[in-house]
């Protein structure tokens, strides 16, 4: 069951959708993120930006949810951009070498440009 404690700001700007989760992305929160990503993909945007600036912690289910979203994005020809990672979250992506798979930008402004 999705965890109601994870807050995710969802906004549309032109042909882009911005998701900005706040809090931890672990086992309990991943289904909530998956739901929001599905809503984003259903709108068929040209770009989905996931701003991770307010994500303090992420473990395997959170990463797996983003990998799943990347696969769907590639099928739909939608750009999926991650941005705003803190050092802890970035380290997870670098250790798993996912920084070579995802499009990662420093901040929301550069991701939305």
Protein topology:
Blueprint: E1 7-13, E2 16-25, H1 30-42, E3 47-51, E4 54-58, H2 60-76, E5 79-83, H3 87-95, E6 103-105, H4 108-112
Parallel strand pairs: 2-3, 2-4, 3-5, 5-6
Antiparallel strand pairs: 1-2
CATH class descriptor = Alpha Beta
Task: Extract low-pLDDT stretches.
Answer: none
**How can the largest sheet be summarized?**
6 strands, mixed
Q: How many helices in DSSP terms?
A: 4
Q: Quick one: CATH superfamily? A: STAS domain
Number of strands: 6
Categorize the overall geometry.
Answer: globular
Q: How confident overall, as mean pLDDT?
A: 94
CATH structural fold name: Transcription Regulator spoIIAA
- Structural domain count: 1
Category from helices, strands and their pairing: alpha/beta
Using the CA coordinates, give the radius of gyration. Answer: 13 Å
**Fraction of residues in helix:** 25-40%
User: SSE string, helix = H, strand = E?
Assistant: EEHEEHEHEH
**Any guess at the CATH architecture?**
2-Layer Sandwich
Strand content: 25-35%
